[in-house]
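Shipment paperwork, digital attachment
Item: protein structure file
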Amino acid sequence: MSDDLLKSFRFRIEREAKWRELEALIVRAEKDGLGSLDADELVRTPGLYRACMSSLSVARNLSFDANLRAYLESLCLRAYFVVYGVRTGFGQVLAAFLRRDFPQAVRSTWPATVLAALLLFGGTVTGWAIIAQEPAWFEAFVDPSMAQGRTPDATREELTETIFRKPDAADQLMAFATFLFQNNARVGMLCFALGAAFGVPVVLLLCYNGLGIGALCAVFAGKGLTVEFLAWLAIHGTTELTAIVLCGGAGFHLAGAMINPGRRTRLTALRETGRTATTLVVGAVVMLFAAAVLEGLGRQLITDTQVRLAIGGTMLALWVVYFAFSGRRGSANPVRHGD
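Attachment content:
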């Protein structure tokens, strides 16, 4: 037997027991999770991993046989993911997202969000002013399926019925909430996706949605139901419209990368800013779900105007405080501008 083969044989004999022990622990952890290892095994695993890494280094330096090196490389790679891999579950990831990532993304993109809010608000004021002067333009701003009888031709009694009517069954409430969630999420997704088209479609979409809201406000204001309508809208609208504004901000964030990529290519800039924009949209979808529940349940069951205003105002205050302060302390890996 040559000296090289003898060295390789002795090397394996002296260390193979630890390799096999590490492999057995790794197989169990991969199959059943780290919870399948007891305290002593958890303590031993990092030491066995470092010993395996040392063996791999020696095997490479002394040019031992390729099969041994391949085995050790595979074992070290598998052990690395067990020792240093992500151990957080879905609940922990979701909690970290809501506690830190989402509010930090909102703060890091506030100029784009403010622009989206101004466009939506500007569209609302414009729609209100136009319909107050020319009611005939109402159908151009509000689809009949969304108006549901709330038109300039409706009487005060008919309009009052639409904002204080209760549904007949709980199934209708949930169906209505599901429909609203899907519709609002679609609008939000469009705002996000169209940002890559240099932001122009996002401007049009936000303004058009604002025109529709303003048109409805004008209809109710014309019948002396301004406060009642705004209360009906506020119970869910402060959450829903904030989410749509955030989606618009995400679209403008992408548009900024397309318009001014700096020294990067537009594709690279779009990919980098897309991480923060995606965080905004995912958080906005959670908000839209909450808005759908408020709209499909709370708004339909709560008919007192003052209570509706209180709920809407409270939700708005909570969102402002959440975005302003959540995730500021003890946060790792903060969202950076330009991400």
